[in-house]
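Task: complex structure prediction.
Instruction: return structure tokens for all chains below.
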Amino acid sequence: MERIDKQCVCESCEFKDIVFRHLDDADILELCNNKHENYYRKGDIIIYQGHRITDFKYLKRGLVKVYRHFSDEDEQIIAITKPFEFVNNIALIDGVFYNYSVSALEDTEICSVNMDFIRELLKRNGSFAIGLLTKMASMNNKIISQFLDIRRRNLTGKVAYVLLYFAREINHSMIFDLPVSRKEIADYIGMSTANVIRTLSEFKNDKIIKVYGKTIEIVDAGKLEMFSKKG
Amino acid sequence: MERIDKQCVCESCEFKDIVFRHLDDADILELCNNKHENYYRKGDIIIYQGHRITDFKYLKRGLVKVYRHFSDEDEQIIAITKPFEFVNNIALIDGVFYNYSVSALEDTEICSVNMDFIRELLKRNGSFAIGLLTKMASMNNKIISQFLDIRRRNLTGKVAYVLLYFAREINHSMIFDLPVSRKEIADYIGMSTANVIRTLSEFKNDKIIKVYGKTIEIVDAGKLEMFSKKG
DNA sequence: CGCGGCTTTGATGTTCATCAAGTAAAGTGG
DNA sequence: CCACTTTACTTGATGAACATCAAAGCCGCG
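Output:
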């Protein structure tokens, strides 16, 4: 109980600055002893839809997709997010279950903190509560905003939009490896797989992008932007 | 400052049980003095997209639509919610603006509490923070869930879904007045106005619903359910 | 080397948006 | 209260956008 751990890794964690900024040293130390890190390989399922929520989880490294099954083999992708963007939507009430799954699109590191401890922290540390509220509100705003962005576009615009999203938000480069299959892009934007592929081929033929399997190079970002704006 | 107000209306407010449950009497009293209630007529705009967020607002009575403009005359409806379901997605950071508007679909009563005071309460009262977090998480889950529900259906299923939503969640009756125009239903489900009307007409011809202007009676909820399930 | 999954492309038909024209309803000013 | 204007609603016809189906190519993996 009185164990002093000078090497507490949470001290230097980037996430500390985002949500745990206002914890004092003692709390950080306790957090360190309460949290556990889990590593997932590409394709592993991190959170199962229908399971009970017991931990507060956030993404430290890697890339995940958040999605909902609605029948065998059929799924809708809610979000594809990178580190420090995803935290689970803790409902904080007993007896609440995940209504989505989360899986790793790349090798991924997840930090879990027991919900009871989070609840305790919230109770005694208001600044922490504000930080967490802010984080959750911002995540939800992003998700809803992206839903609307995608919904108002047509097929061409949707595909252009996600390409730009992957390039700018996820990979920060105009040449990148697609983190998902063609079918997953379709599940993301709510279109059929065949038409997603067709649209990519058209972009390729029009020399707007270059495609090497999973690798995409955006040649003419301006034109993509134009399509994304409504075309 | 020392004013004792035995008649504090917040004491008996239903919303107190939802979010402000864990405030002590002194805080409730202070809340009472910090909050102000606003009344809106049907059609009034309560929150303007683009305006700075200064208050925590929640819906006490009435019905509102939450929506985003993306060009003149064009809007997307994010949610139609009833009392105690809507609270604004407080971002709690300075310099943050609403990225949606809220307007009254019926005569509506909104309670506003200055954000600084909410921030103060969050800081010193963890149970309050947990309640607010829970409320926000649940609201966002509902919105996202409904988005997915609507997206995976075709035109007929979407219209059937919203009719059942209005009947069950909003009006608690199989005969009710539509709180929105046909165009707004279209903006809600992301289809064209003409096709929403066409679908309603088909339901009417098939004797699944009866339509008297804005009044709808669901005659065969089972068939609507069937269409809503995917048909 | 052969199997299975992902990808690609074409052909076909369905679903849906759009346009247009007309009707009902609701607000507005005299 | 009525004529007028405007806005909401309705319906049909047309074409565009998109899903679906099917067949074939590619690619990784055992």
